[in-house]
Amino acid sequence: MYFNKNLLWVKVLSWRCALGCCCMHTNMAEPMELLCWGGDWDLPSVHSDSLIVLAYAKFSGAKLAVKSIDWTWRTITASVPQLHYEGSTVTEPAQILNFLRKQAEMKLYIQLYLLSATKSKMTPTCQKKIKTRITELEKGSPPCRFNADYELTAKQGADTMAYIALLEEKLRPALLHTFWVDAENYVNLTRPWFTSHSPFPLNFFVPGRQASLALSRILLTKAESPLLNITEVEGKIYSEAKECLNLLSHRLGNFHFFFGDTPTSLDAFVFGHIAPLIKAPLPSGQLQKHLNQLDNLCQFCNTILKNYFTDASAEKRMDCSLTAPHDPVDANLQKLTQLVNKESNLIEKMDDNLRSSPQHRHETKPSARASERNSPLLSKH
Amino acid sequence: MSLAAEAFVSQIAAAEPWPENATLYQPLKEDQILLSDSASSLAVQTFLRMCGLPVLVSCRANAEYMSPSGKVPFIQVGNQVVSELGPIVQFTKAKGHSLSDGLDDVQRAEMKAYMELVNNMLLTAELYIQWCDDYTATEISRPRYSSPYSWPLNHILAYQKQWEVRRKMNVIGWSGKSLEQVYEDVSQCCQALSQRLGTQPYFFNKQPTELDALVFGHLFTILTTQLTNDELAEKVKSYTNLLSFCHRIEHTYFKDRGRINAA
Q: Which PANTHER family does UniProt cross-reference here (chain B) (predicted)?
């Protein structure tokens, strides 16, 4: 009786989830819409932040309806990339990735709950915890974090945050300079591209506005005093960017992706930053020359483009998924079964996520936390 | 400094050993220094202690203006002046003292990445709380920052600094964040640091590095500084291994001065 009632609840939830949830296996009634800049130079988008979101969506199998803002008034009004879903809007690559991850996590918990309902290996307390977590996710709290990528360990999640901070701090100023401030590149490549992709009369304003934003960002964050001008800062930001690229190359080594064989959010961020630098036909690109010498990063970028963004491979994957819809589902459930059988690891990890979520922390007093951590998993109700 | 000037300075630096009268300059400890400056200054002091290099701490009201980059703290060694932790680490390396020599390339990449994480999240959050939160800015930051000066200079300088910081926050996209979001970011950062540290004594197991100095500087200052509310300190306190990390470094490197007096 207990199981039937809960099964019904989960079925309703998963039906609602299936309507809007991004997942490979359910049919989408209303896909999520992503606004971003259009593509060129063999890339799906020329804009770094949009590339990050597009790459992550491909990695996680999320179905996004990509709408380019080229030749619309959104070139000046919208902050790109932007995700629209069920009336709500999410901007900034980090927030969008969190949102996509939340959808994927919800799907995982639901499948796990379904599995637990059919196999009685899971204790009722664990089931209750999973149910609580699903309800929390549905309500939209607590917020997900980078280290909530469930396929990564805690340390790898922390590393992700650190490397993303490194990219933002060291590489982004040099990228902004290469595309928007360097006179030769701006006049010969960036400005013509953005002018030709904006409607009249915005084509007079859009590139200039982006360029001044880029310049002010570089000067405010990197110029050490208001008296320094851009030429003195140039040397510093390029040397920092080259160092950053070297560090990334050392970290990647000979692997396909940064954390093993499957791509994660860090791979999406790195791809978004370096792909325009590799592919754009820049007239004067000292950073590009430096990057071309780092073979493993170029290889990384080309691998992602080949496997996730070319139409041929996309068609092949779509065919597979249409003709055999049940196989991926079964494979995933099998994988989940294995996870459930290693119950202690997974539940502990989910329990850690629950414990470390800020909402959970607010409910418990700080002094009681130490004892709580040591008490057995199942004693808390 | 341009690259050529930096290389030149490194060469000169390598020529002389570390003198006895090296001095570190920071704003006045009791009245003027703010949370972010105090954190940076403590990080540099910790780093120099870890290297075993003696340095005298001197508090000046105009330290910010004396500094070559406009940021505190800065050290004067012989006839050279170097500011901020990054250049100071390079400078001491040129003199032959380094904490991160034992690390391989991947570990060095990780260390730099984590240092950027601390700078990106913790330092920016500290600046935000000090200058973009109206209550804190009015009650604490502006009065303290302008305390050595008389009217009307104190008003002008305080508002100028606030405007500068708010512009910077605007450009990096933090101006749209609410205070709760900033606290959440601090919590995320602390969680990442806590997970990286795990149960090890230092971030790269046995030897302290500049990352340990930086993290200690920021966390200790957050824990011991009195702001308008205690929420920031509470966020840090919830990670027990970070607390024990701070205690350990304080006892190891600062025991001769008793407890460090924080502003």
A: METAXIN RELATED (PTHR12289), METAXIN-2 (PTHR12289:SF38)
Burial of B177 (0-12, 13-18, 19+ CB in 10 A): middle
Chain A residues with CB-CB distance to B191 below 8 A = 145, 147, 158, 356
Cβ pair B70:A169 closer than 8 A: no
**pLDDT bucket at A270, cuts 50 / 70 / 90:** very high
Distance CA A187, CA A193 (A): 10
CB B50 within 8 A of CB B253: yes
Average pLDDT of the residues of chain A = 73
pLDDT digits (tens, 9 = 90+) for A217-250: 888 887 765 546 677 788 888 888 998 999 999 8
If one counts every other C-beta atom within 10 angstroms of the C-beta of residue A324, the result is 11
Q: Which residues contact A362 (CB under 8 A, 6 or more apart)?
A: none
Q: What ipTM score was computed for the predicted complex, to two decimals?
A: 0.87
Closest CA to B131 of B34, B29, B215: B34
Measured between alpha carbons, how far is A46 from A210 in angstroms, rounded to an integer?
14
- Give B171's contacts in chain A (Cβ within 8 Å): 213, 216-217, 220-221
Contacts from A239-242 at CB under 8 Å and sequence distance 24+? A239/B3, A240/A170, A240/A173, A240/A174, A241/A170, A241/A171, A241/A173, A241/A174, A241/A175, A241/A287, A242/A287, A242/A290
Q: Which helix (H) or strand (E) holds B82?
A: strand B80-83
A170 contact B CB<8A:
yes
Tokens 């063999």 identify what position?
A42
Q: Which residue has the tokens 């296996």?
A: A25
Residue of chain A nearest B106, judged by CA positions: A251
Q: Which of B69, B70, B191 faces A147 most closely, judged by CB atoms?
A: B191
Quick check: bond before A81 cis, omega within 30? yes
Pick B168's closest partner by Cβ from A145, A146, A221.
A221
Q: Among all chains, which residue has been given the structure tokens 């972010």? A: B36
- Report CA-CA distances (Å) from A171 to A112, A177, A222, B210, B257: 40, 10, 12, 21, 41
* CA A295 and chain centroid, separation: 24
CB of A54 closer than 8 Å to CB of A34: yes
- Judged on CB neighbours under 10 Å (0-12, 13-18, 19+), B256 is exposed
Determine the residue type at A291. L
Q: Quick check: helix, strand or coil at residue A149?
A: coil
* φ and ψ at residue A246, rounded to 5 degrees: -60, -45
